[in-house]
Design a protein that fits this description.
heterodimer; A: 577 residues; mainly alpha; Serine Threonine Protein Phosphatase 5, Tetratricopeptide repeat; two-stranded antiparallel ribbon; 19 helices; 46% helix; 4% strand; B: 317 residues; mainly beta; Immunoglobulin-like; 46% strand; elongated
């Protein structure tokens, strides 16, 4: 009886199972034929790379991502190592050959150095993000045809171009010619060979020239800190200067002199001259490409930009005086006004052309990596580099700017005592005054000055000397010196002399004015005297830092080894490595 | 039902364990026998020229000691280091000439816990020579100005003024006794002036010629000639019978500015000529405003070598 019931139960279950399988298989067959339509509907409401860049707001956030790389810790943490620590204005706390940093500053590194790799990667990260903005410019839809709508897009485009040129400039001045990434990356063509140095510079110049006509001279107060026309032209002058060689006449120097005259002396400069427009591209097509309002949509009140139109003057935008953004003297006009150019009071001041804008999060969270933490180098325990009194004497001799450094147990302008170690001096440019300090550790919020007006004037002086206008060069140089003389009422000015004497005085002023601003190493390399200066410096050091700089080799750092390996040899290493 | 499931599960576990233990059998491989074998693209190099060393043997890790300072195999216990080779190739260059002993060490070990370390070495010699006989620059410093010699073919021409302006004071330049700076193309080249070794502290006569010989580190020689010239000036000059006022430029040491207009009378040294737009001018002519005047001194032996002073006449009206 039980067996029978069992068997009956089993067969019922089997039947259920069997019928179940039948149903399922039917459904499966039916489902397979029709599910394609059901599941392949278009995704609405989700952002894809095809649909994202369609409004100005989304473009602006894509542009913010490009600026974000400038703010990141990984960017700023390597900037000071290359620009300042490798040169002769500072000594470092980490110069031993056991660490990657020590090997870098002693010029005993190999091609796998981690800082060399980090510099490469973080700049290419910026380039990649800028390329996202630039490549997707065609996808933007604007809702009106007003002039300001086009202008808004054009300004975003111009800033992306400026930033891309900025990152490529960081790369080319360090490594020489680098791979120029296509604006839209293809999976099959991820390996890009290196372009020559001339080609890379030409690419940078094109971006900067176009950015110069696309960007405004000033922004309103809510948008301050964005790249302006002044920033584009100042960077363009610097890029041209780096391509030229001191003592060798070239059209690069003449171009620097011309751009500088527009910037500093208010000489007229047309759009065509900045762009080097030669008529190969149709003007109207160029206007459309760069997001100027198309001619047929122009109303009577809209300006129409021609190649012969002069650029707006930059006359009242910048000044050498130590005044803040509103034009008021910094720190009430005291002696410390000079140092206040780098503090919060001097943010976006008349002497600042482009800054990295940091903002403290003010919410107490640590671990943020884009607030400029760690660039201070001022507090005890974070001092990674410092000067000694011998260095300061050879740098400044009796110049008043020596007073803007501080020694062990010295006082800052706002009464702090610095306890950095016996015999050590640091620059007040690295200091954050008490009232500007963030509430939470790990925040910063003090902007970093990347380009200043005084550097533009000194670049112009150097170019004028190179093209033969020595009187003009000395005049510009003495304008800068006269401004420094207002600090202590000195009347000492620079003296006329031959080409070499004027140039040496310009370089001396450059060194004193731009000291401790993280650019000394690259300035030495482009002046062509990195080997001489670093060897002299190395002979005075017990660990001979600088003596191993090899002339003709170390002016270009090596391409990171993993880039060579990943490309299977398509990317070639620099000579001598 | 449950029994069937149990059986199936047991089967899966059994089969699975066999399969998985089988796949782990790769771990704990014994070390292969290392074989150090390298080839270099060139064993004769110039200073700063890259060489590529390729590793073609058998190894789990390859280290190469390049043989120059701080990288000598013989001193590996005295904190000399080698270079780890990635992907079988290493590029390197030497900054001093010499013969270098390049040593390669190939190492293998067990894949499990790294026991069984075995090593094999090989070496070769690389000769680095310094053939550079170039001169990069020749100059002399007369505070505060630096006067550079200009290259003319294979020779150098250095021009000095007799007076220069500094801090609004005229200073005489002693062209017969100045220090000279010669920058050779390589640190290991030796320079000789007039067959005597060049010494930076010596004084040389820069108003005459000198022969310069550069001998490279490997013995190659090259000869140059340095022509020392002085910017010509008027021995005597008068405009309309009176001596004009001379203004020198602090910026341009080859420029003389005279105040005056009218009839020019002058005398110059025998090897000097006054030219207007390149055409010779004789004494007693009227000064013109539309030409460029130059005083040109031509070298007695080599007519290509000249020292040119620009002369400007400014009207005082």
């Amino acid at each position: 009886m039980n067996e029978k019931r069992e068997n009956h139960a089993m067969s019922t279950i089997n039947q259920i199972l069997l019928s179940g399988w039948k149903v399922l298989s039917c459904c499966a067959v039916l489902g397979l034929t029709s599910c394609s339509d059901f599941l392949d509907k278009e995704i609405t409401g989700n952002a894809t790379d095809q649909t994202y860049y369609d409004t100005p707001y989304k473009m602006q956030s894509a542009l913010d991502a490009v600026y974000d790389v400038l703010q990141s810790d990984s960017y700023n943490d390597q900037e000071w190592r290359f620009g300042e620590a490798m040169a002769d204005n500072v000594l470092g706390t980490d110069e031993g050959l056991a660490s990657q940093m020590g090997q870098l500053v002693m010029f005993r590194f190999n091609t796998s150095n981690t800082w060399i790799r980090q510099r490469w990667e973080v700049n290419y990260r910026g380039i990649h993000r800028a390329n996202q903005v630039i490549a997707n410019m065609d996808r933007v839809h604007i809702s009106t045809t007003s002039y300001s709508a086009y202008q808004q897009i054009r300004w975003i485009y111009g800033q992306a171009k400026f930033l891309r040129a900025f990152y490529y400039f960081n790369l080319v001045k360090t490594y020489g010619g680098v791979p120029i990434r296509p604006e839209t990356e293809q999976a099959e063509q991820l390996v890009v060979p290196r372009s020559t140095e001339a080609e890379t510079y030409a690419y940078i110049e094109k971006d900067l020239r176009e950015a110069a006509i696309m960007l405004p001279a000033v922004y309103n107060a809510q948008e301050i800190g964005k790249a302006t026309r002044g920033a584009a032209i100042a960077l363009l002058m610097k890029v041209l200067m780096y391509q030229a060689r001191p003592g060798v006449m070239s059209e690069k120097w003449q171009e620097v002199a011309r751009l500088g005259s527009y910037f500093v002396d208010d000489a007229p400069l047309t759009l065509g001259q900045v762009l080097k427009y030669d008529g190969t591209e149709d003007w109207e097509q160029l206007r459309r490409r760069l997001w100027f309002k198309p001619r047929e949509l122009n109303t009577d009140t809209d300006p129409y930009e021609t190649a012969d139109m002069a650029l707006e003057s930059l006359k009242n935008v910048y000044s050498l005086e130590y005044r803040d953004y509103y034009g008021q003297p910094l720190d009430g006009g005291s002696k410390w006004a000079y140092a206040y150019q780098w503090y919060a009071a001097g943010e976006f001041c008349r002497g600042s052309v482009f800054e990295v804008v940091f903002k403290e999060s003010a919410d107490g969270t640590g671990g943020d990596t884009n607030e400029g933490a760690g660039i201070e180098h001022f507090d005890v325990g974070t001092t990674a580099m410092y000067a000694t009194s011998e260095i300061l004497t050879s740098l400044f001799s009796d110049d008043i700017r020596k007073d803007f450094t501080i020694h062990h147990q010295g006082n800052t302008p706002d009464g702090e005592i610095w306890q950095g170690g016996e015999g050590r001096h640091v620059s007040l440019k690295w200091y954050t005054p008490k009232k500007d300090r963030p509430q939470y550790a790990g925040d910063n919020g003090r902007n970093r000055r990347l380009m200043r007006y005084v550097e533009v004037v000194l670049t112009l002086a150097e170019a004028l000397n190179e093209v033969g206008d020595r009187e003009g060069a000395l005049t510009k140089l003495n304008i800068c010196k006269a401004q420094v003389n207002t600090i202590n009422g000195s009347t000492k000015l620079y003296q006329p002399g031959s080409y070499g004497y004027v140039r040496d005085q310009i370089w001396q002023e450059r060194r004193m004015e731009l000291a401790f601003e993280w650019d000394r190493y690259f300035d030495l390399v482009r002046q062509g005297r990195a080997a001489t200066v670093l060897h002299t410096f190395g002979r005075s050091r017990p660990n001979s830092r600088g003596l191993y700089f090899r002339e003709g080799i170390h002016e270009h750092l090596p391409i990171p080894q993993n880039e060579i390996d990943m490309s299977n040899g398509v990317v070639e290493q620099n000579d001598g490595y | 039902m449950r029994a069937i499931i149990k059986d199936v599960a047991a089967m899966v576990l059994l089969v699975g364990s066999i399969v998985f233990t089988g796949s782990c059998a790769e771990e704990g491989e014994k070390a292969r026998t290392p074989q150090a074998q390298i080839s270099v693209n060139s064993q004769q190099l110039a200073v700063n020229e890259s060489m590529t060393i390729s590793f073609t043997g058998v190894a789990d890790q390859v280290v190469i000691f390049t043989g120059d300072k701080d990288h000598q195999y013989e001193l590996r216990d005295s904190s000399n280091t080698g270079f780890v080779v990635n992907k079988g190739s290493l590029t390197y260059s030497y900054d001093v000439p010499g013969t270098f002993h390049v040593v390669c060490i190939a190492t293998t070990y067990d894949t499990y816990k790294g026991n069984g370390l075995q090593q094999d070495t090989t070496s070769l010699y690389v000769v680095v020579t310094d053939e550079v006989t170039d001169i990069d620059a020749i100059y002399t410093t007369v505070t505060p100005n630096v006067y550079y010699a200009k290259r003319q073919g294979e020779d150098w021409v250095l021009c000095l003024p007799t007076k220069q302006l500094y801090n609004n004071r005229e200073m005489t330049v002693n062209t017969a006794k100045q220090r000279l700076s010669i920058v050779a193309g390589s640190d290991s080249a030796k320079v000789y002036i007039d067959d005597a070794p060049y010494v930076t502290k010596n004084y040389y006569a820069l108003n005459t010629d000198h022969s310069i010989k550069v001998i490279s580190g490997s013995g190659a020689e090259k000869d140059y000639r340095l022509y020392g010239m002085v910017y010509p000036e008027f021995l005597s000059i008068s405009i309309n019978g009176a001596t004009p006022k001379l203004t020198r430029s602090a910026y341009y040491q080859d420029l003389l500015e005279y105040e005056g207009s009218g009839t020019l009378e002058f005398t110059v040294e025998p090897d000097v000529q006054l030219l207007a737009n390149g055409m010779p001018v004789s004494t007693g002519t009227t000064i013109r405003n539309d030409v460029e005047y130059t005083l040109v001194r031509t070298h007695a032996v080599n007519a290509e070598v000249k020292a040119v002073t620009r002369v400007k006449f400014t009207n005082n009206e």
